Amino acid sequence: MAVRGGECRGLQDQERLSNCSSGDPDVSNRRCGDGAPWCARADEMFNAPGLHVIDVHHDAGGQLVVTVETDEVVTGCRACGVVATGHGRRVHRAHDAPTFGTSVVIRWRKRVWRCLDPGCPVTTFSESHDLIGPRAKLTTRAIAWATDALAHDDTTVAALARHLGVDWHTCWDAIEVEAERRMADPGRLTGVVTLGVDEHIWKPSHHGGDRAVTSMVDLTRDQHGRVRARLLDVVPGRSGTAYSRWLAAQPAGFTAGVEHAALDPFRGYANAIRDELPDAVAVLDAFHIVKLGTQVLDEVRRRVQQDTLGHRGHKDDPLYKIRGLLRHGIEHLSERQVVRLETALDVGDPDWEVTIAWGCYQRLRSIYHQRTAAAGKKIAADLIATPTPARSPRLLASDGPCGPGGHRSWPTSTPTE
User: Fold this and answer.
1) What is the Cα–Cα distance from 417 to 282, expressed in whole angstroms?
2) pTM above 0.90, yes or no
3) Contact 358, 388 (CB under 8 A)
């Protein structure tokens, strides 16, 4: 629908202009029809109280151009308060959030006012509105849309700028100001019970200063027990000092509310948790635990390779050929891969050392596949108490012994208990 000259230009409105004045009772104060200054239905879709749509069209570039103006007819001087008089209008263009699958440009016919008091230091001034700030190239709605997308969606500033129809720098300059404002809000840290920390390589270059940064993430579970990771902050450097300073700078009560602190196997982060989060339980995150298990399995395989064959792995050596399969979870292996794994272990692992290490590795992985924390805790306790059990849920499908002379057999499904 287009609105030109105060008239509705919808298909039906061309024949019955009065139809715009009836229908949905939720659209209040509708003045749509012959002689109406603007269309209430267009204003409802535009959704910016105080601004009214007077024209809608597509430009040559395919952008949706919406011309708006305010209904303000009387105002006072901002300096002296004397009633001002109109001094014409000027057009302020700003890009809005995408609508109907296309970029949107707002043409605000901004009214210019003139103070009538000869002694006032203000001669002329422009009207203002919360949607479009002074000299702004993006509306506040567009800035909020872009910042939300960058925070919650897998997107980039370049993609957002393309959707908005602006330059990358224009988009980022606006997002940066809004992001800093949100970061300064202490309420965003409310309810953080599980806090995670890890390093990240920020600059993909081997030159320059410190490329590593420390990232803090909210790992608190929601009411349904799901973890919705939320990035809280990023600070330069990978050190316990950087993490300690960040914790110390948070609002009062934040550290007291943290019950669990997840970290990677780095002593600096552990020291920071010990000093700044004394009441929190330090927990090594699942990724690094499984990674350590993978490293141990590889070390056992290499040692057995040297002990049995006296050299590093060659492409035709049994254990070298299955080095990738050993790292995979049993639930991801096909029947053919299981047979290949079993055959290679029968030939290259005479003392069952790699087999037992692989079984422990699979049990370690299975901890994080359980439906309940209690089931995972039970597997962890059994693994610590008996690292070489007589029966492993990942290693044996039967009750046969896990040792020399026993039969290697693997289930194809992951048990949940």
Assistant:
1) 26
2) no
3) no
Long-range interactions of 99-102: CB distance < 8 A, separation 24+: 99/64, 100/64, 102/58, 102/62, 102/63, 102/64
Q: How far is CA 75 from the centre of its chain?
A: 44
pLDDT means per 10 residues in the chain (417 residues)?
A: 44 38 45 64 91 93 93 87 91 95 94 91 92 95 95 90 96 95 87 91 65 90 83 88 93 90 89 93 89 94 93 91 91 87 90 90 89 88 74 35 36 36
CA distance 416 to 218: 27
Sole residue written with tokens 């901890």: 367
CB 115 within 8 A of CB 87: no
Q: Using the 8-state DSSP alphabet, how is residue 28 labeled?
A: -
Q: Which amino acid is at 358?
A: W
Instruction: Tell me the C-alpha distance between 64 and 84, whole Å.
Output: 34
Nearby residues of 266 by Cβ (< 8 Å), 6 or more positions away: 199, 238, 240
Q: Provide the phi-psi class of 135: left if phi over 0, else alpha when psi is between -120 and 50, else beta.
A: left
Paired residues of 284 in beta bridges: 263
**Chain-centre distance of CA 292, in angstroms?**
27
Residues 6+ apart with CB under 8 A from 310: none
Q: Tell me the one-letter amino acid at 272.
A: A
> CA 417 to CA 398: how far, in whole Å?
16
Distance separating alpha carbons of residues 333 and 322, to the nearest angstrom: 12
